[in-house]
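**Backbone shape codes:**
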Amino acid sequence: MKVALIQTRTPATHDAALAHVLPLVREAAAGGARFIATPECTNVVQKDRAQLLPALKSQEDDPVVLGLGQAARDAAVWVLIGSALVRRRDGKAANRSLLISPAGEITASYDKLHMFDVDLPTGESARESEAYEPGDRAVTAQAGDLRLGMTVCYDLRFPALYRALALAGAEVMTIPAAFTRPTGAAHWEVLMRARAIETGAFVLAPAQGGRHEDGRGTWGHSIAVAPWGEVIAILDHDEPGVLFADLDLTDAAKARAAIPALANAREFSSPPILA
């Protein structure tokens, strides 16, 4: 199956974000991709929360979500909005991944579980939990022949999530991201390959890249990894673009048969946690 990962440098407003991503999605569809995935924060990148939070829309009213739903319908393709920053019904915000069918209908959604609350050695800091309500469930979904495990960015660092998704039948892990440049340079590719090897699954990671208009810098380097751990496609830069990959869906079963780690795992009692 031919898939495409969209690499963006999403602007700070919804209308500009839609104008930015739509041509890339259409390029991917014209290139023969039947499943197209966009990065985290596809609908807006704005680090000033005083500007961002009042501007967020509900999922039903977000112009980027609506526009990509129309694009999926027009091209008769599956579109995964890696994440849209949306307002929940309770008024809180969510970092939400959305799967859109070729009919333009949202068939699955996943709210990012793990909040990126860190102080980096470079002096950069992030407190996602101050803006977003985390999800509370793991999600698998069917996109044509692809059985997806839906995750977002920082989830990448929590391997237990991917094991749970693999045991639930996921053979393709989607990891849309807006990775920081320091952590991207150090950890991006090796962690993507590790998650693929551990689960015997494909990893598809579309990314934000470059210096955004709000001043944020993201790593780019969108990547597709096969279940044996080999990189099958990568954009070796941070510019907007389209990355195509061909997936042989029998590869997951082959990898899991060769290294049956999912089947061989045993329960164990943990040592005491030190204070």
Remarks:
- The chain has one domain: 2-264.
- The first helix runs from residue 14 to 30.
- The first strand starts at residue 2 and ends at 7.
- The helical segments are 14-30, 49-55, 63-75, 159-167, 181-199, 251-258, 261-264.
